Amino acid sequence: MSQPLSSMPVSQLKGVGPQLAQKLSDYGLSNYEDLLFHLPLRYQDRTRIHPIGSLSPGMDVVIEAEVVLADVVMRRRRSLLCKVRDGSGFMTLRFFHFSGAQKNQMTPGAKLRCYGSVRPGPNGLEMVHPEYQVVKSDQTTETEQHLTPIYPLTEGIQQPRMRSFCEQALKRLNPYSILDYLPPELLEHWGLPTLHDSLRLLHAPLPDVDQTAIQEGMHPSQRRLAFEELLAQHLSLLRLRHKTQQDRAQLLTINPELQSQFMTQLGFQLTHAQARVISEVAADLSKGHPMLRLVQGDVGSGKTAVAALAMLYAISSGQQAAIMAPTEILAEQHYQQFCQWFEPLGLKVGWLAGKVKGKKRDKILESLLAGDIDIMVGTHALFQPDVIFDRLALVVIDEQHRFGVDQRMALRDKGMVEGSEQATLRPHQLVMTATPIPRTLAMAAYADLDVSVIDELPPGRTPVETVAISDQRRDQVIERLRQSCREGRQAYWVCTLIEENEEMDAQAAQDAAELLQNSLPDTKVALVHGKMKPKEKAAVMAAFKGGDIQVLVATTVIEVGVNVPNASVMVIENPERLGLAQLHQLRGRVGRGATESFCVLLYHAPLSRFGKARLQVMRETNDGFVIAEKDLEIRGPGEVMGTRQTGLVSMRVADLLRDKDMLGDVKQAAEWIIRHRPDRIELLIRRWLGHGEKYAEV
Ligand code: ADP
Ligand code: MG
Prior knowledge:
globular, alpha/beta, binds adenosine-5'-diphosphate, CATH 2.40.50.140, binds magnesium ion, 6-stranded parallel sheet, Rossmann fold
């Protein structure tokens, strides 16, 4: 019998005392099994000595060569240059930091074994600061037997130590000390290696391994682990979904009279896409189980109207509905919009944000609990524990990409009032996002949700024309702005985040506003930023909406949801600092009316390669889905999905972009496991998601 590695704490490792054990476990490495799942980031090949004559720039290699001469030179920097040869060629070793002892070691004729990166130098190839050792003439040092793993590290633990810990754990690895939770039938069907073989190979790959594949994370052993991780992820979301479907929820139907009154208020026809999504929602609401539906729709596709109609189902059925927005400005705007739509129907709309305090707040909470309010609009302040609804049946979460999965889960319980007769009913949930997620990712990220797409914009929109201009030509841009304002247009001027510091951010926006006002004396320029009081912000937004302000200078607070159809110019300063999704969101503030709109990306040269690529994408397309795909290519899924999005980001082995071709197989494998080996579900989830209890439990 061998002891399960998960029950062997790291304190049993050689060279690990209580303090280090604590450090390791803070880093997520508590036992031997954790260490074995702590996989190398990459590998070095120190298994053989390369002749200098065979090298080319970019290679990381071991050479063994004899010192020809070593000299300290003083050019731009004082450095030690050591010329070496091995019979096949010459190369230079370059050191910027060195001791006298080091220099003395490098006497002509001394033999050095070096490991480093080869790069072109002024006199042929060189290595900068190679690791090296002096080889005694009568001594032949062995080369490494396998590729050298480079592990991810935490502060205070160096590479050699981490390597030694993983080596020690590896010695204890056998098929019984870590169980393979993937059943043999499944391994065979998908052609996957065993867990045991995979881990052994990845910690100590032999030199004949496919090195290109392993460096890129495409080796079958890596693929197998990624497969297992994605599978665990998927199973946990499916389990969540399954649980939701077993819950009960209010049956909601719409009152046709109320509906036609509402449509009259609305003043426009729904697009086909909007109508289709509403019918999908309606079907969910009639099932008696909680709806959990994600609506993806590009900026300006009309998600608010869809939300409002869904809410009408709740209200028609004598229930309450709530909508939560990620920022106060957006919530405020929804509040105004909903008052306009619903009050003429005799319905009561309430408002709550973090800034609402004291008596005002008490009063709102009171009427909410009394059931006097039909529709509640607010920020996440809505979901504090003391906000209690009388009969909440539908929750809408707008711009979901701003909310983490935790909030998604916290909401499940909202509206379940202790002791009330509805205690067993959960509210329906409609989640809306303007950040389209590529289909493959959506499948993985939202396996617990149903997804609807509004893939059509309301009629009469003209696409926004986008140009990128260097900020050296700021004057020309301001001049153009002057003309636009004279033609009766309104403009946004967005200052992007400089530091992670709201104070400085606000200051920069203030400076920009002053500069603009000075350059445009005939134009009314105003400022809105995150440090302003909500009342001030609201007043500025209202004045802009009312046309009293022509140029609105803003920090990225206006990013989501703001709707001023007459605004047709968007200037974004330093757009290279923003991701594509954010740029697309910002640009979506214009192009909402019938006039043609412009977006000026006022960049600061020189642009990085990524910066250039992003601005190029923005100029080429207005399609949010295309942009999402590009964003994924340029930045990778972690950034695209937002750090707290789903835990998909913190995956240990899998990489959604690299491994997306597996997602279809993973889905099938999950179904197979559920049908044939349900005993493995819990084990897999615990192994891979054990640290993110939110997922594992629920
Ligand atoms: P988003 O999907 O970005 O939240 P909004 O709901 O704010 O978009 O809608 C953007 C604008 O389009 C609003 O002014 C809204 O009134 C308008 N709108 C929505 N649906 C339609 C439609 N079917 N026809 C015409 N205008 C519409
Ligand atoms: Mg919106």
